[in-house]
């Protein structure tokens, strides 16, 4: 069964944005649980995929349920070369869960797991289901802002290939930010 990640991403994004902008002041949970992130990273592709390693940009939108747990939608895009030939678009869509540790400190280690879809091509597209597992460090700058750095292992199920991703992110939390938890 293939996940139609574009539809899933759209529905979840619209749902979270609608909820974040709703006027339910009686609700004990406020907009501080909603986060928006911008990422920059580097793909280290498995040699059997014949793709040249490449940097990428990404965005994420998610919810912090507690100081320990969050769930986010992540999208990244870049252009890669196959065997140093013509460039083609390479996109990742993920739903990822994160578990933070040492939540009373400003430096918090975390683990992240995710499931998504990788699309690549120009004209004719190929897609494959991808899983991810990684760890990193989250530096809380203020209740609303944090910086993240992590390493992720990506396993492309349809190609039986393993890639690596190194990523840095800046994350903004709406409302009172972490002060709402």
Please provide a written account of the structure.
There is one protein chain. 28% of the residues are buried. It contains one helix and eight strands. With 181 residues, the protein is mainly beta. An eight-stranded antiparallel beta barrel has the order 1-2-3-4-5-6-7-8. The chain has one domain: Porin (Beta Barrel). The model has no long low-confidence stretch (mean pLDDT 85).
Average pLDDT figure = 85
The CATH topology corresponds to Porin
Computed CA radius of gyration, to the nearest angstrom: 17 Å
Residue stretches low in confidence (pLDDT < 50, at least 5 long) are: none
Order of helices and strands: HEEEEEEEE
- CATH architectural group: Beta Barrel
Number of helices: 1
Q: Helix share of residues?
A: under 10%
3D shape:
globular
Number of strands: 8
Main sheet? 8 strands, antiparallel, barrel
Number of discrete domains: 1
* Broad CATH class: Mainly Beta
